[in-house]
Amino acid sequence: MQLTDGAHLPVVVVGGGQAGLATSRHLVAQGLDHLVLEADRVAGEWRNRRWDSFCLVTPNWQCRLPAFPYDGPDPDGFMVRDEIVAYLEAYSRSYDVPLVEGVRATRLEAGYRIATSAGTVTADQVVVATGPYQRPRIPRLAERIDVPQLHSSQYKNPGQLPPGEVVVVGTGQSGCQIAEDLHLAGRTVHLVTGSAPRVARFYRGLDVVAWLDRMGYYRKGIDEFDDAEAVRFRVNHYVTGRDGGRDIDLRKFALEGMRLYGRLVDADQATLRFAADLKENLDHADAVSEGIKDTIDAYIAAQRIEAPEEPRYHPVWEPADPSETLSLQGIGAIIWSTGFRRDDSWIHVPVFDGRGYPTHRRGVTSVPGLYFIGLPWQHTWGSGRFGGVADDAQYVVERIVEQRAGVHWIAGKHRTVA
Hints:
By secondary structure, this protein is an alpha/beta fold. The protein has helices at residues 18-29, 44-48, 81-93, 173-184, 208-214, 228-232, 250-255, 278-303, 389-404; strands at 8-14, 34-38, 64-65, 68-69, 99-101, 105-109, 113-116, 119-128, 135-136, 149-151, 165-169, 189-192, 202-203, 206-207, 259-261, 264-267, 271-274, 325-327, 331-336, 340-341, 347-348, 370-372, 407-410, 413-416. Helix 1 (18-29) packs across helix 9 (389-404). The protein starts with 7 loop residues before the first strand and ends with a strand. This is MSMEG_0569 family flavin-dependent oxidoreductase. Keywords: Oxidoreductase. GO terms for molecular function: flavin adenine dinucleotide binding; monooxygenase activity.
């Protein structure tokens, strides 16, 4: 499909990933004319910003896009990158999606006028579905380091890196999985830890995700938490779906030769310097994992569920005298697994808070007709994922329909417009 310069549409969706496609599917079901703008191709983020061995950390059965749940042969498995791309491509072919690929939205003004790389369109309502992974976040101290560097979004495989040892900075999901990828390939890895928690893959006979799903955790709305803002910006627990799924135990990696460090605090051309908090970081990650097990145990007991007993985790390694410096001599590359920033600089509508985060309730902003979809913890844990984006998309489309009928939603309340 092509964009027609000067066209006007009831709804324009910016972003053709899982969030934008889910929204489009609900709009089609409502019979609403719309356009989906995608700067790359369907699944471009998964195709271009994930490494070769990447796989989901949630089981395939949690892939529940509207009218297109996973129906493959391995519901308890974890799709690898190319399978995820194929799943989204198949979804885009499963209904008559009005998709324009290779067209980037460059400016959104109140009104709504949308300038793009292929012309300008206007709309009555706009849904921003551009995802959270837009601008790689790399600390400024990287400028002092004279070693080849790349962001985790640029990493593909161990063979792409220069010879030598590798430093991975960050122990969120990407950092831990990339460190494991390099470790399994026989590279010497220096992993710089942070405050990210971990979670067990399996416990008492089930994937931990399955237990949490049974317990209703993934249906719990952000407004049910006492610390909603803190929850929204938490780092994800690290675990992996690789080879059928397993824990990521950094202590076990240390026994096998991976070098672990505390938080990175300073650097120059010759040396990295770390905080003396390695033990604290490892203990915190383990405590979170064991706390989740406590919650599962309590649920099993309360529901009188027959489930096999399982011994608890015991640390297999302790940092005796953690290094607080690392010479960069012999280091072939540094991988920054330090996350992303949103880039909403193209949006010229006053809906952002002091941090630049879009203010909304369940994706509905205070400016009538502007919505967001696919934000982490937009409403539930699954909002930015395959597991919960369908519910958010349905909610947003219901509000779109209501506004077209003369009902405006502001801060969670609605009023009828005469």
